[in-house]
Each structure stands twice: as C-alpha cells, then as structure tokens.
Amino acid sequence: MDTQLPRIVITGVGLAAPNADNLQTYREKLLAGTSEITELDLRYFGKAPAGVCTFPETKYRKKKENKRGTRAGCLGVYCANEALADADLDIDHYQRSRTGVYIGLTEHGTVETENEVYNISQYDYNVDYWTHHHNPRTVLNNPAGEITMNLGITGPHYSIGAACAAGNASLIQGVQMMRLGEVDMALAGGISESTGSFGIFASFQAQGALGSADDPREACRPFDISRNGIVVSEGACIYVLERLESALARGAKIYAEIAGYAMNSDARDYVLPFHERQAECMELALERANMEAKDIDILNTHATGTRQGDIEECKAIRHVFGDSPNTYINNTKSIIGHAMGAAGVLELAGNLPAFEDNLVHPTINVKNMDPECKLNNMVVGSPIELDSVDTILNNSFGMVGINSVIIVKKV
C-alpha cells in the first residue's frame, strides 16, 4: 500500500460463531479442532448438518426489539457492541456522525420471506396475516441499520452484497472510507443468518453441493478425497477499525494492520470458480502490501468442501506460492462450516491471535488428502507453532465469480 495513505488497524473484535461467542473461546476451540456443527431439521427439507450460534441475544437489546428486527440484526448488534467493548472504546470517542457501519452479506430477506409465506399458509394464504414489519426487515441495509439504531450512530451505513466474499469486501470498504476521510472510525464485518432458510439448503442440495456425514461434525471436510459439499452455518464478526495514529494516541490494543487487499471477478460462470483469477487476486493483494509470497506466514484458505472449488483454489495457491517454505496453510470452515457473508471475517478473526501465540490452527476432517489438493505446509489435525507470525493472508471467494483477499500484519 502507498505509505502516504493512512494506516488502518483492527482494535476490536466481536463475534458469534457456531462454537463460541467471543474471540478467546473461539481461538481455544479452533486450536483444539473442536467443531460444534450439529444437525438441523428444516421445514420442508428435512435434516442436514449446520452451524448454529448460541450467544446472549438480549445482552444489548431487549427481546421485544429482537422480535421486531431480524436474526441478522440481532447478530450484528451483539457483535458490534462486543467489538467496541473489546476495543475499550466508548461510542462517543469519535463523532457518531463520523462513524461508518459496513456489513457484508451473502443473502438477506430470504429467512423473513420464507417465514411469512409459511405463516400465511396456516391461514389459507390470507395476506391480512402478513406482518407490516416485512419491508424494513428485508431491505439489504437492514442489519447495518439495526446496528446504527442500537448505538445511535448517525454516520453512513450500508450492506455490501458480495456473495461469500462479502465479509472481506466490507472490511475493504471500511478501510477505503477511512482513507478517503469519509469517516474516522468504522464498524466493518459480515453476517449470515442462512441457517434459517430451507431454500439455501435445498439449492445446495440441488447443485449436489450440500455436505453430509454420519457425524455432522465431520460433514465439512475440505481437501479430503471424500468431501461432498458445504456445511451451511450462521455467524457474524465485526471489527473496530481506526487510523493507526488515533489508536496509538488512546493507547489502544492493536490486533493487526490491514496491509493489503484486492478484489476481482472471474467473469466466467455463475457457480464454478476459476483459479487464474483467484491467483491474480492474491498477487494484487501482495503487490499492494509490498510483499512477496514468501513473506506470508499463514494463508487461511476459503475452501468449502466442494470438489471443484477446493481444487481450483489449490491450483491458485500453487501458482502464487509454489513451495514457499515459510507459508503455512489452514482452513477454518472444516471446524465451523461455511458462514457465507461472515466467512472471511470470522476466519480471519480466528487466526489473528497467532500474532501473539505463534500457533497455526489446524484443518480438521482430512483423513485422506485429495492429491489434487496437496499443498506444502498444510496444517492438518493439530496446531503447529512457528518461531513468529507476522503476516496472515485470508482468501474469500463467492458465487458469480467474485474474489477477495485480505493481508494483515503485526504492528
């Protein structure tokens, strides 16, 4: 990145994952390879493995407010408040009109619409029983807007639709808006409420891309020769972003600096990924970070457990990293499933503590490595301790050919 641009750092993390509701517990379970993927019995669909979050839903908002709002909004309000608390930052430290909220989403409104259709089906499809809350619940800016209402933030808020690259995209948006001088602090991250939608499960099933196993904790198995698809998870992760000089001035804890990023498009297919564009995205992020492949200590993969998706990403990684002896590779989805719009930011968050403990959390459920997915320094089964961890690269790719890469470094 141009050294004349303001340096943007992460000073707070708030999250809800299928196995934890705070970063410390989340990190402990990732290092232990503890998956809490369970089985849901979905209306119209039946049973399927899924990642469901448990968190104190009324910690920052009353039950009545949660009922009027959305599951995504509930997740967002919790994580935004947790991020501010983690950053030891009062919402009034920066002007509320100079604070931005940028939330990445893969989908929004599906859950609410399915629920309302089901509700009126119990009344012979009489639309008089359709809730008047439906429109504000389903507009795309809803989760970001619910956060601003909860915290009294009067600066800009909007959601970023970038399929499963949306979490990374929102982080990039926050950095850009701060560098442009539009805001002085940003709450940026991603949210997924996808486990509430039977349509998402049905669609992946129709594509032959819904993961399954006798034990739901083993259903998400990227890189394994027997992998058979995605495990759908809900979740959220929101970061506090500040300018480095502002964070230092208030004595903030700094998790990492956002050193480089890139987004591009395959321009090729609705669903199938393309390794050449993914490689170009990684190369551009490295260039902007003024780094080479050998400078990356941890590469967190996007791999979802689909046959072609995993292979294409591995091809891209081989092209960019070759046999880099310094880069260790892991996968978070094997433990928490695929949290869609929250995937990139949740997975990055799980690796951030490596800057302090120097540990690379493992990929689990790889019993028989697919030869087409074999990569140098893949961390499988147990964590590996490095001499030091100074850089992390996070891949996050999505449908309709959208790719995103974030690089963070220790300050």
Give me the CATH architecture of the largest domain, please: 3-Layer(aba) Sandwich
The order of strands across the largest sheet is 5-4-6-8-1-9-15-14-10-11
Note the beta-strand portion. 15-25%
**SSE ordering:** EHEEHHEHHHEHEHEEHEHEHEHHHEEEE
* CATH fold-level label of the largest domain: Peroxisomal Thiolase, Chain A, domain 1
**Major sheet size, sense and barrel closure:** 10 strands, mixed
Distance between the termini: 15 Å
What would you call the shape? Answer: globular
Give the helix tally.
14
Percentage of residues in helical conformation:
25-40%
Identify the CATH homologous superfamily of the largest domain: Thiolase/Chalcone synthase
Rounded to the nearest angstrom, the radius of gyration is 20 Å
Q: What structural category arises from helix and sheet content? A: alpha/beta
